[in-house]
Structure formats: C-alpha cells, structure tokens
Design brief:
Radius of gyration: 28 Å
CATH topology of the largest domain: Pyruvate-ferredoxin Oxidoreductase, domain 3
Strand order of the largest sheet: 2-3-1-4-5-6
Shape: globular
Strand content: 5-15%
Largest sheet: 6 strands, mixed
Helix content: 40-55%
CATH class of the largest domain: Alpha Beta
CATH superfamily of the largest domain: Pyruvate-ferredoxin oxidoreductase, PFOR, domain III
Distance between the termini: 61 Å
Number of strands: 8
Number of domains: 4
CATH architecture of the largest domain: 3-Layer(aba) Sandwich
Number of helices: 23
Oligomer: single chain
Length: 538
C-alpha cells in the first residue's frame, strides 16, 4: 500500500452492539493521533435480516506532514479494496466476502465466531442454520490474514458491549499507525462504563495479538476464546445431570446423556410423576428397539431420538411455562448484561403477553375448552379477529412479579385442561406407531420416531406440525400399501423432510401424491374484509 492511499476499514455490527459508538471512537483516535480520517455508515434493518456497516478511511500520513493539502476519501468500499474487515458475527463476515469486498492478497479479516441466527434461518421448520465450517472456509479463502475469536463471550465476561471489544481487536490488528495509548485515552474519556469498556478492550487486544503472533488463525466453535484473551476462563460446557442408579441400569449407556437431559427437563416442567411417565414411555421404545436390533448394531439410535423429541413434546409451551421462564433468576441477570447496566443502575423490564382463546381453553376442562374454541371459531367465521387479552406487565415491580408468580403456579391446572389431554393423546399415537414400526423393521420405527421433530413452535406452526405428523403416520406408516417395509420407511423419511422444508405444505403434498397417499385435508380459513379508511380531501 502506498502512503498516498488511504487505509480502508469496514466494520459490520448488529443492532444494539454500539457500532456507531465504535466508528466515533475510531475517528477520535485518528484525530488525537493527528491523522486525517473519514467515516460513513449504512444503516441495517431490524429482526436480524442484516447489519449496519461503518466504512472508514484513514490516511497513513499525519496531517502535519501534508503541507496544507487534504486527502480525498471515498464514501463507500470498493470491491477488493478493503484493507480490513471487522465483523461482530460470523455470517455477516461471510456476507461481505460474497459481495466481493475482501481480497485474498490484501484484506485482513477479524470476526467473531458467535452466531446470531437470521430471520431466514429461524423460519425454517427444520435446522435452518448455515454451517459454520463452510462460512469459515469461505472467509479464509478470501482473506490475507484471518483471526476468529468469540468476541461475544469476551463482551459478556467484561460486562460491556461489542463495540469496546471490536475496538480492542482493531487496535491489536496492526492496521492503523496509532499507539495503544491513543485508544485507551478515548475509552477513558467515554465516561460511564469506561471500566467495563477497558476490560473488553484489553481482552480483545490480547486475543488478537496472540492470534497474530501464532500466524494465520482460522478459528472454530471448538476454540471459542484464545486462552490469554479473556480475563476469566471460558465457561465449561454444560454437563448433563447424572441419572439415578436404577434408571442408568435400565437403559443403555449410549442413551444416558440424552435421557438425563430429557428427564431433568420433564421433572422441572411438571414434577416427579411426569418424569416417571417419561421413563415409562421410553421403556416401550427401548424394548421395541431391542427386539428389532438385538445385537445393538445401531447403538440404540431410536431410543436416543425418542428421548430427545419426547421430552420436548411433553414440555409443550403454554402460558404457565412462559411465565415461569420470565421469572427465572438468570433472565434478569441476562437482561442487565445485555443492556450493560452497572451495579447501581435501575433497569425496568416490561413483558408483553397476548394470550388468546387457545391459551385459556387449554387450561380449562375439555368440555369447557371445546365450547370456548367453538365460540371463538364462530366469531372468526363472521370476519372478526380472534379474541385475545393483551397484558402489559412491569416485571420489575412487585405487582408484575406477583402476576407472573400466580401464572407460573398454575401447573396443577395443566393436567385438568383440554390442551393436556390433546397433547398426551397425540404423544401416545406417535409412540404406538413407532413401536409397531419397530416390530416390522428397525428403520421404519426409527423414521417414525424422527417425525417427532415436526412438533415445534406454537400457535399455527405447532398445529400444522401436529396435523402433518398424524397424516404421515396414518397414510404412509400404516394405510398406504408398499412393496416392502424398506420402501415404507423411505416414504416416511421423504415426507418428513418435505414437511420440514416447506411450511406451506406444497412439498409434503407432492411427496404424499408420489406414494399414492391421500392428500392433506384443507383447513378452512375465514376471509376478513377490512374497510379502508377514507382519506381526507384537500
């Protein structure tokens, strides 16, 4: 790079990470050091569909040596013209690379290994996450030098926001001709939160400096934080709770970890009796798999999957569970950490609920619940909106906490409710089909168990998943004739993948038609006509 060319830097940050503050700090550092600088930004959009980008150009010579001349800076990055790309999220770094901004011979890339899932990733019914290994390979192929660290973890440990951590990473990158003291002076002058910002700055500075000392570094999720980077050691991975001795003896070791997690989840959800029911249901799957695979050639894969999806289904979301999650002690700590609140700062939290008829009907006895659902269906058939009760609870107050505590204490009401009866009946329907499938062929039973993955989300999403699962079992696992059980298992697997790939049901409809199964029943959806407000005339 010629001294006549500016040093180009693109910073990508998500909402709430302080990207604007970071850009201001970098400009102030250059100004304090006596170098010309220019900064421009392009706002991103909400709901994790993009990021805000900050483009900065730094002249490599001090202003005092220019003899009154002023450099000409660009306003936007040029493809292949970046000297450095700094991102707070892995997919954002890959996104900028796909735009052609990075160059394998020129660009230094510094990015966090942390992921914040995009809206598109969350919308997929199955696992919509982009593979991190592919992202790292793409970024590494288009960068001169690459450092990948978990800046998110550094920010949490330091009790600060992402901007301070990225500030330290840029300072340690060797990109800019400024002293560390210039950066530290800017932090010291930032006022409130300066101590936490300094901790985050120091952690990232040490991490990037150590990575550069070792040469070109391509990180991964296995190596979250370089050992010398964090002021405190990274948290150890979660260890599943130990199974009681009698339970461990009754189940194969290969399934212990998953059963332990599921058992703890179910017990926390509804108590010991519900946990005992969970083990009784798993015992049926265990016995069926042992009969289908007596040599355990498949290492009890069906039992492990049943332990996973059964626990998730048995702990279905309702207003009682939501209230309990809102009351969790770790939640307030997380909120304070996310807003970077100090020890003496007051944080006010407002929770918004809008339970509708299905939520209230689910806690009522079956006859009452069905009557309430029919009433709401008649309202919607007349073109009215579904009934709902908006709630605005100030969780930081005694009143808000008491209301949440009251809702979370209604666990005893679950077993008497219409929703409970419906969910338990469908769970038994699914497990019965899996056990019968195992009796015919191990793989058929395994594929039916995997259909438990279709039950996810809430509201309309969960109802569609339930309908799809029941239809796949009724038609492909039982009624439709096939030449062999292997062909039947293939059809169930294909239908499950189709249902996860397309929320609208078109892919599943094609899969059903391909195997000669009955199509999905069409649900009635009332049409609502909304009167358009008259526009005022001049």
């Amino acid at each position: 790079m010629s001294v006549q060319s500016p040093i180009t830097l693109l910073v990508c940050a998500l909402g709430g990470e302080g990207g604007g503050v970071l850009a201001e700090w970098l400009v102030e550092v250059a100004t304090r050091a006596g170098y010309p600088v220019q900064s421009t930004s392009i706002p991103g959009v909400a709901q994790r569909t993009g990021a805000t980008t900050y483009y900065l150009e730094f002249f490599a010579q001090p202003t005092s040596t220019l003899g009154g001349r002023r450099p000409v800076f660009g306003l936007v990055p040029v493809a292949g013209g970046l000297d450095a790309l700094v991102c707070s999220e892995l997919l954002e770094a890959a996104r900028q690379v796909t735009l052609g901004l990075a160059d394998a011979q020129r660009t230094q890339v510094i990015t966090s290994s942390a992921r914040t899932l995009t809206t598109a990733e969350r919308m997929v019914l199955g696992d919509g996450r982009v593979d991190a290994a592919q992202l790292l390979a793409l970024i590494g192929a288009h960068s001169r030098e690459l450092q990948v660290l978990d800046f998110n973890a550094m920010a949490r440990e330091a009790g600060t926001v992402m901007s301070a951590v990225l500030f330290g990473a840029i300072a340690a990158s060797g990109l800019l001709p400024y002293e560390r003291a210039h950066y530290e002076a800017v932090i010291a002058a930032s006022g409130r939160g300066a101590d936490a910002s300094r901790r985050g700055f120091d952690a990232a500075f040490a991490g990037v400096a150590a990575a550069r000392a070792r040469g070109r570094q391509v990180g991964s999720y296995v190596e979250h934080v370089v050992g010398a980077a964090a002021p405190a050691p990274a948290a150890a991975p979660a260890v599943p709770p130990a199974l009681p001795a009698d339970v461990a003896a009754a189940y194969p070791p290969s399934a212990h970890a998953m059963i332990a997690l599921g058992l703890a989840r179910v017990r926390e959800y509804q108590g010991d009796a519900y946990a005992a029911l969970y083990l009784q249901r798993l015992a049926r799957v265990r016995d069926a798999e042992r009969a289908a695979d007596p040599q355990a050639a498949q290492s009890f894969a069906t039992l492990r999957e049943a332990a996973r999806w059964l626990a998730l289904w048995m702990c279905f979301d309702d207003i009682v569970r939501v209230a309990g999650l809102k009351l969790a002690g770790t939640r307030l700590a997380r909120v304070r950490r996310e807003v970077a609140a100090g020890a003496h700062d007051v944080v006010k939290v407002y929770d918004y609920f809008k339970p509708g008829v299905p939520e209230f009907a689910g806690l009522l006895p079956a006859a009452w619940g069905q009557a309430l659902l029919r009433w709401d269906a008649r309202r919607r058939a007349r073109g009215l909106e579904p009934w709902a009760l908006p709630l605005h609870l100030p969780t930081h107050t005694v009143f808000g906490m008491v209301m949440l505590k009251l809702l979370s204490s209604l666990r005893w009401l679950r077993r008497r409710g219409q929703r409970w009866a419906d969910e338990q009946a469908l769970i038994e329907r699914w497990l019965d089909a899996a056990v019968r499938g195992c009796a015919l062929d191990w793989r058929l039973g395994h594929e039916i168990v995997l259909c438990g993955r279709l039950i996810k989300g809430y509201g309309g999403t969960q109802q569609r998943g339930r309908d799809n699962l029941v239809h796949i079992i009724d038609q492909l696992a039982e009624k439709t004739p096939f030449a062999s059980t292997a062909t039947r298992a293939d059809a169930v697997a294909q239908a499950r993948r189709a249902a996860l790939a397309d929320e609208g049901g078109k892919a599943l409809g094609l899969a059903l038609a391909q195997h000669g199964a009955a199509p999905l029943p069409v649900r009635e959806v009332p049409i609502r006509f909304v009167r358009k407000a008259n526009k005022p005339t001049a």
